[in-house]
Amino acid sequence: MQWPPGDEEPSDYWLSDLPADTTMPDLVHLAKSRWRTEHDYRKLKIGLGLGLGLEDIEGRFWIGWHRHVTTTAQLFLTQLRLADRKAAGQP
Prior knowledge:
- The chain is mainly α.
- It folds into 2 domains: 58 residues, no CATH class; 33 residues.
- It is 58% helix and 0% strand.
- The longest helix is centred in the C-terminal third of the chain and has 26 residues.
- The chain is extended, with a radius of gyration of 20 Å.
- It starts with 23 loop residues before the first helix and ends with a helix.
- The model has no long low-confidence stretch (mean pLDDT 78).
- This is DDE family transposase.
């Protein structure tokens, strides 16, 4: 449960079926990860102010979305690979 200082009652409750030996920091991280996911989705939906968010893609065909996501994933992986090379001192 989350009970902010000075409040008369808790503000949030979570129920978990995780193993009993799960640490408190892990429980808090998992409970709060939903907020992060919702926050990121909201940012994707409005397009981070760039004018092209998920709302702008709604109503389009699945194949276009699939191509877009595949290209984005490929770009991300390429950037990771290049960053790893630079860290290793390779051109």
